[in-house]
Amino acid sequence: MRLPRIVAFSGNTGRPSRTRVLVEAIAADLARQRRIDLKVFDLVDAGPGIGVTSRDALPLPAARIIEAIEGADGLIMGSPVYKGSYSGLFKHVVDFLAPEALAGKPVAIAATGGGPRHALMVEHQLRPLFGFFTAHVAPTAVYAGEAEIQDGVVTDERVAARVTAAATELAHLLDTAEAARNARTQPPAAAVL
User: Which of 23, 135, 146, 154 is the most exposed place for a label (fewest CB within 10 A)?
Assistant: First the structure.
């Protein structure tokens, strides 16, 4: 049996970043709960050519990220907050995704920002974005401000609890998605008369 392929994507243009710390924390908690095949990408991994306007023009590193996201069994998607929303380049990457590739896909969402007033971005921006694609978004979203991540570690116990909740929900969504896939590939049971 193959391991679930999980892609964690941080919409930051540099490293290190608090957003990467947050998506990696969710991934690590998920990996404690079950074995996974994990790939982690930052926006910076896409390279300088990410600003193209068509998928066919994407440079190879960016195209590989898009293919990995589409081919994953589950996603952990995080963005820093800019002016009350996800970053423009994060959205640009999402715009290259085929809508049918995200339909029914389990997704955990996360964001980092400068303080508490940015916390609702995950609910008002990220959740509807993935809802548009009919992805199955974990009920618990994770947000961390500057004070909740220190030296590359989630230090706030409330944020850590949300990380665990999101990872647990993502694990359950992965199970549900796998059961749905299996049901589609099984021959129909004989009717009992």
Answer: 146
